[in-house]
Amino acid sequence: MKKSEELRRTINDLKTEVENLQAAEQYDDAAAKAKELEEAINQYNAAKAIEKVQGLDVTNNPLEPENKNTAVTANLKNRIFNKLVLGRPLTEEETAAYNTAGTPGLVEASPEKGGYVVPEEQMNTVYEYRRQMVSLKPYCNITPVTSLSGRMPAMGTETGVLTEFDELNEIKQSDFDFEQKTYNVKTYGDIIPVSNQLLADNDVNIMSIIGRRFTRKAVNTENASILSLLKALSATTITDYKGIVKAIFKTLDPTIGLSAKIFTNQTGIDYLAELDDAQKRPLLTPDLANPQQLLLRGHQIVSLPDSLLTVEGQIPFFVGSMSDAVAFYDRKGVEVAVSTEAGFTRYVTYIRAIERYDVKMLDKDAVVLLQIANA
């Protein structure tokens, strides 16, 4: 195992420790552990630099990989996908790679049936763009599905206790009913015009061209779907931030409150940022593991644009565990298809990108909606 990989694991472990200490309000210990985290990050960066130099020969050229076939196959997959989508013939080498064991899974459908599934190499571009945006999907309970509709078992509320019994006596049986959550996957998409001059190169990364626009619209659509469920919750009016703290420690189940997060908009984060405690210190504290992330009493705050989350005359706060509250049924993968005829007069090719998903409420008691009057 590379040194950088070992250090990456260490960094993840230290980050978890820092977050746990902050949640327990052990700020001195968290600060000490954060220094260890910072040192581990510096060691990781140094290790990566050394490994990069070790991968070059004396002429500063990359050394030949030990397994050439692996690198070539990755490049061929990208080229094969582009040619199939654009309707171009494959070479003998590309055909042989396409017929290699495991490769046929690259393509799941024909354009007439919805397009081609984007391979993992190009999906990484979409994932990278997603990380640059505030997406609620990662906070939900993501459940991959393979059909357009169906039922999923979900655990209902359980308040029973174990039964005391004497030795040799039969244990009393109790019934347990699983809830059935029905999902109906919907299709969402976008059509992007792309210059034919760009697509003339078979090696062009199609998803790098359309990925940013598609991802932005996809995240906005997913966020709107999730928020539509949360906005249906009964709102509780509070007078100040103490109502948020009370919801975490008293209203929510203790197991939910322990890991609860606070979801609000730009107005909400601005309201909290202006508050001080009794010692005139800012109420919000930075996460020592990620200084750009703000915390309220050790609980992470997720801020969405006002354009996406707005309540007339109120500042909304969704407090709780999104993963316990919302199920995101994801028919995994992005599919693309093309049309050259529609853009004939503009000398462009229209690329359609679609994704399929559904969202359902799992546990409405896992998140509470709080509102403060917006003065």
From TrEMBL:
<dbReference type="InterPro" id="IPR024455">
    <property type="entry name" value="Phage_capsid"/>
</dbReference>
<dbReference type="InterPro" id="IPR054612">
    <property type="entry name" value="Phage_capsid-like_C"/>
</dbReference>
<feature type="coiled-coil region">
    <location>
        <begin position="4"/>
        <end position="54"/>
    </location>
</feature>
<dbReference type="Pfam" id="PF05065">
    <property type="entry name" value="Phage_capsid"/>
</dbReference>
<feature type="domain" description="Phage capsid-like C-terminal">
    <location>
        <begin position="114"/>
        <end position="371"/>
    </location>
</feature>
<keyword id="KW-0175">Coiled coil</keyword>
<protein>
    <submittedName>
        <fullName>Phage major capsid protein</fullName>
    </submittedName>
</protein>
